[in-house]
Amino acid sequence: MRKRKSKFSLVTSLLFAAIIGGALYVYSSTMFERDVPRISMQNNGYWNLKNPLEVLIEDTSGLKSYKIILKNGNDETTLEHEQFLVFKESAKAKIEVPRSVYNMKEKEISILVEATDTSKWNFLSGNSTVTEYKLKIDKRKPKLNIVAHSYKIKKGGAALVIFNAADENLKDIYIQTNFGKKFKAQPFYKDGYYISLLAWPVNQRNFKATIIVNDFADNESKNYIPLYLKNNKYKLSNIELSEKFLNGKIAELAAEFAETQGVTDKIEQFKIINEDIRAKNENLIHDITSKVSDSMISDFKIKEMYPLKNAAIVAHFGDHRYYSYKGKQVSEAYHLGLDMASNAMAKIIPQNSGEVIYADYNGLYGNMPIISHGLGLYTLYGHCSSLNVNSGDSVKGGSHLANTGKSGYAMGDHLHFGVVIQGVEVRPAEWMDTTWMKLNISNVIKSAKEIIDRG
Asked: CDD domains annotated for this entry (predicted)?
């Protein structure tokens, strides 16, 4: 009798242990994982029904099946349904709508994504999940019309455009150029209207600008700005580097910059200064001057620019300089400002008011204040001996900004005067010409206002 009880107890214990072991195996085995498939779809809540939506479905145990359903009102349309015969950790699906559904009138729809994995959980039926995405339907392109623009643009010069853009789901407005630069437009005069200065870089052979407006549903409108292009020839200078220059100014600058520490070769010093340090200094300028306000402006009035009284022009904008040493070309650079000289340490007096956004030392440019005049227009004053302003100051036209000097990469006392539009250097000569400013700026604004008021 005791042997029977002992045998029964052993069998019970073994059975209980087997049940516990089986339960632990089921609980810990990847075959019985309990995580539902992960579903993701990149969207911003809008859809134009034209551009496919991408759905990603993932599961570590493998996918058994998925289904994508479009729900509009009381109607449901299966857009995609797939069952997998082999193990698959993930699946990507492109959601496209059939023509019969494209013409639906609903403004909102839902996308239902159902997925089931190959897990043995849930009595071998696997883990299932359903994710719903609610989307607003917008199939209409944004409104876009050019109101007024400058007649022409010169290589190295500027132009102005004013246009109307509107959409109930407006996302982005910018002006795309053929050389990769995007110009930002600022709200102008009345709701739905925008204004922007444009710039043709001196080192670009051609110029094309297209206004692009898109909405959150990825509908897009484009309008090419029909500017007459006029090539402008700039000086080519072949400069032979002298020993005096290399042992003097270049050696002086090489001792100053971290990039030339430990470099003993004179030509290598010059190349680093003329190329690497110049690029670094210009990148700072471009970054500072690329900003445009989002605030609406009703007008843009600017006076002719001539910051140095009784000055002589000693170097022109756009001069393409090739540097040689012992007859061999070693480097090149563009001169992106207008060099003006009068008396030593002469007063620099801008004619236009603005905000000082930078007033510090900038490598080859030396002591350099930059003034923002609005609409993405900036003026720059290089090689100053002293500054009378600090960053953040507001300055009035006619005030004493700084004094000329020879700080930075300057051989003699002068002012390097630069005009920059949204990070692109342009010809200062245009902004010194009242006739040019009237034809290309003030008359365009006046004409646009008259058209807008009539509309």
From this structure: M23_peptidase
